[in-house]
Amino acid sequence: MDSESRVSFETEPTTLETAPAPLEVRPTRGVSLFWRTFFFLTLLLTGCIIAWLQTFRALEYEPRALQSAQQLASLVNLSRAALVHSDAIARVSLIKTLAAEEGLRIAPREPNDTYKLYDVDALSRNVAAQLETRLGRDTVVAREVNGQPGLWIGFGIDGDQYWLLTDPSRIGPVAGTTWLIWLGTAALLSLTGAALIARLINRPLKKLSFAASRVREGDFNASQLNEAVATSEIREVNIGFNRMAQRLSKIEQDRALMLAGISHDLRTPLARLRLETEMSVSDPQAREHMSADIEQVNAIIDKFLDYARPDHLKATEVSLNQTLEAAVFALGDDPNTVVKMRLEPDTRVMGDAVELQRVFSNLLENAVRYGRNPDTGVVHIDIACKTKDDAVLVKLRDHGRGVKPELLEQLTQPFFRGDAARSDATGTGLGLAIVERAIARMGGRFALANSSTGGLAAHIKLRRAGH
């Protein structure tokens, strides 16, 4: 084989046209079900806590204001009555006793006294209004008199005005530190409960998603879900999914067995037919045509067998350079086929050597069949590869007419044989389907795209060995 005139090798790294979207684009990451459920439950619980707190405050303000006003009014009335009905000597002693025992201070109210009204919040304003109702409109409730802070209540006795100073804690806030602690504890427990509920909802769905992904990859044995869970709805879903996976596994096994059986049963009569043809047909041209037809039938059987292969294999380290060189060598000595390879030296991937060579043989066969230049009749095939992180990207392209963009996704479907531009097809339409399945079995990805400079390009992403 005059390989120098047909195949050229370059071991230097080369630029590789960006692989199409199916190989490189990652799906956009949205918010997971766990966090969505957690956020919704958190909002719900937070709203409930706020509503409860507002309700409590609303129900607490009025009774507390009324109670505080009653106590303060009683202090003022008792002090007023004691001062009115006691003589001068007893009045002095009474004022000292009230200051010592009850913390009350009674002082005359001068016209030039300065004061600030006790209106720091809704509760204090409500208490002041209640005191005015009970003690008279001339009642003044202040929080500071002449620069001295405290709870000051101005009242009158027979036309004389007095100040009563008492402890401001008699009008206390609705919620102190204790309420804040309990509120924080309730919020923490609510968030913890929300996380547990979200996880309880998310866990079976996450397992179902994993099992569905294993079924999609053809691993039916690893997709079994627990059929003894406590929740009846989840148990029914798991049972239904397991039965579906078992049914799909049975269908896949029957399909593979049927294709393998048909292919196997056809080989024996074909071998006899070929032998009889070579012995009984005297016309060499007719015998050659009949032998070619039999070879084509054998090739179709081989395609069926390849397509019916099991979906699992044990990946090993494979030399990509040797595999590609062997696939190109198998093309033969056709002067109208020119292959140009640009490979990085000693590129190794994880896969199966036989499967990988079958992949590249199918792609080269497809390129030779459909990538021929209609004017010169010569097929130009370019093969390039490069490493990227833990992967190896391989691009194999021809310089033919390509295919219509809307048909690209259908090229890997079994028995699809292209559009009118590629109607000279004589194969089964399984070649690219076999390639896609084989690449998937090796943990890689495969995509087809029309090259920007003409022709069809096959992009393969394989796992890099040692990573």
UniProtKB/TrEMBL annotation:
Membrane topology field: Multi-pass membrane protein
Superkingdom of the organism of origin: Bacteria
EC number: 2.7.13.3
Domain HAMP per the UniProt entry, residue ranges: 199-253
Main location: membrane
This protein's record includes keyword Phosphoprotein: yes
Subcellular location: Cell inner membrane
Catalytic reaction annotation: ATP + protein L-histidine = ADP + protein N-phospho-L-histidine
Single GO MF annotation: ATP binding
UniProt keyword ATP-binding, yes or no: yes
Positions of transmembrane segments: 33-53, 179-201
One Pfam family it belongs to: RisS_PPD
Keyword annotations of the record: ATP-binding, Cell inner membrane, Cell membrane, Kinase, Membrane, Nucleotide-binding, Phosphoprotein, Transferase, Transmembrane, Transmembrane helix, Two-component regulatory system
UniProt domain Histidine kinase: residue ranges: 261-466
Protein's UniProt name: histidine kinase
